[in-house]
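Quick sanity check, Membrane protein:
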Amino acid sequence: MNIFIPLVLGVFVGYLLRGRIKSSMDKPMNIALLFLIFFMGVEAGRVEVDALQLLIFSLVFASFTILGSLFIALLGVRE
C-alpha cells in the first residue's frame, strides 16, 4: 500500500479539524506506535538468519571501514 495516500489524508483531515478537536492524540499515537514496533519485531523474528556468518561479515566490513578511514587520514597528513 502506498504510504503517502494515508499520510496526505491524515494531514488533510487534521487541517480541517484543527480548531474542532480538543482531545489529545498522544495516547492513540503511542498505542499505534507500540503495535507497529511489536509487529516489526514479529516480522523480524520470522526471518531465518545465520548469526555467525552475519557477525563475521559485520566485523570484516567494520574493519575495512576503519582501515580505509585511517588510510585516507594518513594521506591527508602527508600532504
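Posting the structure with no commentary besides this: Residues 1-48 form one domain.
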